[in-house]
Amino acid sequence: MRTFCAGLVTILVVPLASAQERFERKAELGVSGAWQSYSQSTVSPSSSLLFLSGRVGIFVVAGLEIEPEFTTLISGRSNSLYAINANLCYNFETPGRVVPFVLAGYGFANTIPVVNLPTFETQNTVNILNLGAGMKFHFTSRVALRLEYRFQSYSGHEPFYLSSGFGTNDLSVQEQTIQVGISVFF
Q: What is the CA radius of gyration of the chain?
C-alpha cells in the first residue's frame, strides 16, 4: 500500500509541480505576427495581410487569463475609431512544455475593420465575437512561443437614407487570423 501511495503521489505531484510553476505567473506580455484572411458579405473576393500586434494577459486563477484588447485609429480629420474586446483565455495544465488554450470573448467598436485596422466610423455600435484556440510552447517557465487561430465576427446595423425614407444595412464582417508570437510571463 505504501508503494502504491508513493507511486500515486509521484504520478500526480511531479508533473503538476513543473506545470504549476507556469501557472503561478501573474501576467503574460507578448508580441505576435499574424497572417489574416478578410472577407465581407457584400464584397468579393477575400484578401490577406501580415501584421504585428502586442498582447497582455492577466491571470486571475491558475490557467485562466483575462486578455483585454484595444485598437484605435486617431486622426485629426475625424473622430477616433476604436475596438475594445474582453477575452477569457483558458490554459490547460499539461505535464510537458506544450500548453493548449482556448479563447472566447466579446467586444464593441465604432468601426468595421479592414484587415484588423479600424477604417471608417459607424453611426451605431458594432458587436464583436472572438473565438480562438492555440498552443504555447514553453522554452522556459517564463518564455513561450504562442501559436493561435482566431475567428472574429463583427455585426451591427448602419442607418442610411433613401428618397423613400430611412433604412438600415446589416453589417457583417468576419476575420480569421493565424498568429505566431513570443510571450514572456511575469
A: 21
DSSP lists the bridge partners of residue 147 as: 135, 180
pTM value is 0.72
* Residue tagged 514572456 (cell numbers): 184
Task: Fill in the DSSP letter of residue 74.
Answer: -
CATH number reported for the structural domain that contains residue 147 in this entry: 2.40.160.20
Number of domains present in the structure of the chain = 1
Are 78 and 121 in contact, with CB atoms under 8 Å apart?
yes
Structural domain including 67 reads 2-185
Residue 57: exposed, middle, or buried by beta-carbon count in 10 A (0-12, 13-18, 19+)? buried
Tell me the one-letter amino acid at 98: V
Q: What percent helix, strand, coil does the chain show, rounded to 5?
A: 10, 70, 15
Predicted local distance difference test score (pLDDT) of residue 98: 95
